[in-house]
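Progress note, sequence design subtask.
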């Protein structure tokens, strides 16, 4: 089969479109024919390499896929050949205490499929192997491209806002990176909850698209002072929840925008992981800093029910041939897209 593969870490040029063996299912695995695969920022991290993290090489990236089940293992009972599925990207043992209480992200064997798995074990290929437990019915109303764009960002944003930050109706939430895949979903979840959403993006065009998704207020961080604008919008109160995934470049401003007793929830650090915090604000304003990583299968299913009902909509910027995966990664690095980039074999 054809796949987008890298054999060493580096720039987009290390990605090669080449032939690799087609995966075979273990006894509790399924093999899917990939119809479409989403691109995420962890594709960049894997290809670039991260300090202190070992990646199995050669590596196929891709944590989001939608496709048709081609083959199942001998002990698979819940998935049928020919079924249309999307991938729940969180791999865990499914039998430990954390997994059985619905917190598989605390499993000692937890991995993000297509990022920490391998070698040659991800979505950016014509076929992919996943555990039976990670095959989830595809929402019927979605195209293949829409279905492939949403699981990871939906799961992550849902866990951040609903489970960790416990965002409430009437609260103010600041969403950084409104033009990202995760930001575009966070805006919609915030509005579904009944919060007032303040979205931040880097161009006027992205701000207009964020507004169209439901954001109540938009701020262009390239031309406006985010902290001053938040104070103006909230009548100097500050926001109750900050949705963070940018990290070093936005962290101090995130802290400065928070209301007394506010919560900041963070799932990533696309601009760097060394952030400065004035501890006087943290204890005096009794702020809460909440880490968040992935989510449970139950949370994904809950979010997908709202997708099926049309209340959360996938945001696909453009569809790109799998052979041009390197170009897709260049677009992500330049933050050229609004929403998700999707690859098709």
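Output:
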């Amino acid at each position: 089969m054809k796949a987008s593969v890298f054999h060493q870490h580096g720039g987009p040029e290390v990605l090669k479109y080449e032939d690799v063996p087609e995966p075979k299912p273990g006894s509790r695995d399924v093999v899917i024919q990939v119809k479409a695969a989403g691109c995420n920022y962890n594709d960049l991290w894997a290809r670039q390499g991260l300090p202190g993290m070992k990646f199995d090489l050669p590596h196929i990236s891709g944590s989001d896929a939608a496709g048709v089940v081609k083959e199942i293992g001998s002990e698979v009972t819940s998935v049928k050949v020919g079924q249309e599925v999307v991938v729940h990207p969180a791999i865990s043992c499914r039998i430990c205490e954390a997994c059985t209480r619905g917190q598989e992200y605390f499993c000692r064997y937890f991995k993000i499929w297509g990022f920490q798995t391998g070698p040659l074990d991800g979505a950016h290929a014509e076929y992919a192997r996943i555990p039976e437990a990670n095959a989830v019915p595809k929402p019927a109303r979605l195209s293949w491209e829409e279905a492939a764009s949403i699981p990871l960002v939906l799961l992550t944003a849902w866990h951040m806002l609903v489970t960790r930050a416990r965002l409430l109706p009437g609260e103010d939430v600041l969403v950084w990176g409104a033009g990202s895949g995760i930001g575009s979903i966070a805006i919609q979840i915030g509005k579904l909850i009944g919060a007032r959403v303040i979205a931040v993006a880097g161009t006027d065009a992205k701000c207009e698209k964020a507004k169209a998704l439901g954001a109540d207020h938009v701020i262009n961080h390239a031309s406006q002072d985010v902290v001053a604008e938040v104070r103006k919008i909230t009548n100097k109160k500050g926001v109750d929840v900050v949705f963070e995934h940018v990290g070093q470049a936005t962290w101090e401003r995130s802290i400065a925008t928070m209301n007394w007793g506010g919560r900041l929830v963070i799932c990533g650090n696309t601009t760097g992981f060394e952030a400065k915090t004035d501890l006087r604000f943290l204890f005096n304003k009794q702020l809460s800093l909440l880490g968040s990583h992935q989510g449970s299968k139950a949370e994904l299913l809950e979010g997908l029910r709202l997708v099926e009902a049309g209340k959360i909509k996938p945001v696909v910027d453009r569809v790109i041939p799998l052979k041009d995966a390197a170009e897709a990664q260049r677009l992500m690095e330049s933050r050229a897209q609004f929403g998700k980039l999707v690859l098709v074999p």
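Residues 155-291 form a domain with the Rossmann fold fold (CATH 3.40.50.720). Work on this subtask will continue into the next period as scheduled.
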